[in-house]
Automatic annotation (TrEMBL):
It is found in: Endoplasmic reticulum-Golgi intermediate compartment membrane. Its main location: endoplasmic reticulum. GO terms for cellular component: COPII-coated ER to Golgi transport vesicle; endoplasmic reticulum membrane; endoplasmic reticulum-Golgi intermediate compartment membrane; Golgi membrane. One of its GO terms (biological process) is endoplasmic reticulum to Golgi vesicle-mediated transport. Gene3D superfamilies: 2.60.120.200. InterPro entries: ConA-like_dom_sf, Intracellular_Lectin-GPT, Lectin_leg. The chain crosses the membrane at residues 458-477. This is L-type lectin-like domain-containing protein. Residues 30-253 form the L-type lectin-like domain.
């Protein structure tokens, strides 16, 4: 119990010590001001109002943002704090999105800190004779200088008029050329006013990291009112963009001397707390030694914090087994993938082979019996042609009186031979065309076999016709030969 009480006391002292460290000279105090901030979700109340803020014009607040202007021409919207900001130094961070479908946008959005709350007007939704600070995000190049989109810092004493056609060059004190339209992430502006120095940083929204800010401008010897109103407004002209404000976070900055006054800690008090912290630390160490003496079995030995040789070997074996198990699992997965690929390849090859077999079977339009019939007819025709050859050889022993008739017969035989050669050429042409067509259709012939399976029926029809013509010629020749013999004898 004593040790628990000691730990509690030490924790309390550490908390006080942190407060004392926060008062170290040279560090300013930062405090969040909720009455001058808004952020989603639950940005609006049930009645659609923003807590501690007024809005008007075309501004449409929702649960997570305020749409100052929709992408419609000639619209103005604004939002202003209801109360003034009581602190002299401050820092704000505004997250916004400017999106539009066109290559050029208009007009822009502005962030304000003025002595009086703004009213709807021509200067980006505010009056053009404000008194205070305006940070403008100008989308459209009205002065035709080719320097937009541009982020500019404007200061006005309430007597000068913002010249919209010149993009306010008379009031401009600094700025930077940045394209803030259609960024993938919200564009963030951090504006700090501390000890009469105004600094503006810009996060261009190209990365989601919140710390990617870059310096835009830094102005010294800037004097702003202590009690002012924060606001944000936007406007569209002939061109239009959606101007959305996602958050407006405000912090007050207090110099270190004021921080010491708020905490009420003097140097003597800080020294006293430091001494008490050392005393309690010594007591805690003493109670720890007493606890070790009273409970030696519960005291953890220093060597227990280190790994023994046996434990190290067991751990290495276990890690090696895990690595082998992981490698085997990976190999098993790869083998499974290869098996699937081999099965797929086998299926494709089998399917293609079956398709080729089907194509060959479809081309077999003549059966074996028909082929045998054709072969018999060819044999008969061959025998007849042999007889013609024998008769021609016998014709050489005839007497010279049948020379005239032999000349006529020879002429007819010559005509018959020409007709046969012509038909043979036709048959060869038909066979060649069929093979070419078969090649175009990608149908391959099976291996050689006794029965020709790749020759279509047209080939046999032409062959039969040719042989019939030869037979008719043979019969005519035989009749003519017999008539000549009878006439001679």
């Amino acid at each position: 119990m004593a040790s628990v009480e000691a730990l509690t006391s030490v924790g309390f002292l550490l908390f006080l010590f942190r407060l004392s460290v926060a008062s170290v000279p040279g560090e300013r105090h930062v405090k969040f001001q909720y009455k001058h901030s808004f952020k989603g979700p639950h940005l609006v109340n049930k009645d659609g109002a923003i807590p501690f803020w007024n809005h008007g014009g075309s501004a449409i607040p929702s649960d997570d943002q305020i749409r100052l202007t929709p992408s419609m021409t000639n619209k103005k919207g604004y939002a202003w704090t209801k109360s003034t900001f009581p602190h002299e130094w401050w820092e704000i961070e505004v997250a916004l999105k400017v999106t539009g479908r066109g290559r050029l946008g208009g007009d822009g959005v502005a962030i304000w800190f003025t002595e009086t709350a703004g009213i709807e007007g021509p200067a980006f939704g505010n009056t053009n004779t404000w008194k205070g600070l305006g940070v403008f995000l100008d989308s459209f190049d009205n002065d035709q200088q080719g320097n937009n989109p541009f982020i500019s810092v404007m200061l006005n004493d309430g007597n000068q008029i913002y010249d919209h056609n010149k993009d306010g060059q008379d009031l401009q004190r600094g700025g930077c050329l940045r394209d803030f339209r259609n960024r993938p992430n919200p564009v963030r502006l951090r504006i700090r006013y501390y000890e009469n120095v105004l600094t503006v940083w810009v996060h261009m929204g190209m990365t989601p990291k919140p710390e990617d800010f870059e310096l835009c401008t830094r102005l010294e010897n800037i004097s702003l009112a202590k009690n002012g109103f924060f606001g944000v407004s936007a406007a569209t002209g002939g061109l239009a963009d959606d101007h959305d404000v996602l958050s407006f976070i405000t912090h007050s900055l207090t110099p270190p001397k004021d921080t010491q006054g708020e905490t009420g800690m003097s140097e003597e008090e800080q020294k006293k707390l430091a001494e008490q912290y050392e005393e309690y630390q010594k007591k805690l160490e003493q109670q720890r030694e007493e606890y070790k003496t009273a409970h030696p079995d519960k005291v953890k030995k220093p060597e227990a914090e280190y790994e023994s040789a046996y434990e190290r070997d067991v751990r290495l074996v276990y890690e090696g087994q895990n690595a082998l198990h992981q490698m085997i699992s990976n190999l098993h997965s790869k083998v499974g993938e290869l098996t699937v690929q081999v099965n797929t390849l086998y299926t494709l090859v089998t399917t293609d082979h079956n398709q080729i077999g089907q194509v060959v079977r479809h081309d077999q339009t003549i059966n074996r019996q028909e082929v045998n019939t054709l072969i018999n007819m060819q044999q008969q025709l061959s025998s007849k042609l042999q007889e013609i050859s024998n008769l021609m050889s016998q014709g050489g022993n005839m007497e010279r009186r049948d020379v005239g008739d032999s000349a006529g017969v020879n002429s007819k035989l010559s005509d018959m031979q020409n007709a046969i050669e012509s038909l043979t050429h036709s048959v060869n042409s038909v066979a060649t065309k069929q093979q070419m067509m078969s090649g175009q259709e990608k149908k391959e012939c099976p291996p050689p076999s006794p029965m020709p399976q790749c020759i279509g029926p047209g080939y046999f029809v032409v062959l039969i016709v040719a042989q019939l013509i030869m037979l008719i010629g043979y019969i005519g020749y035989k009749n003519q030969k017999e008539a000549a013999a009878k006439k001679f004898f």
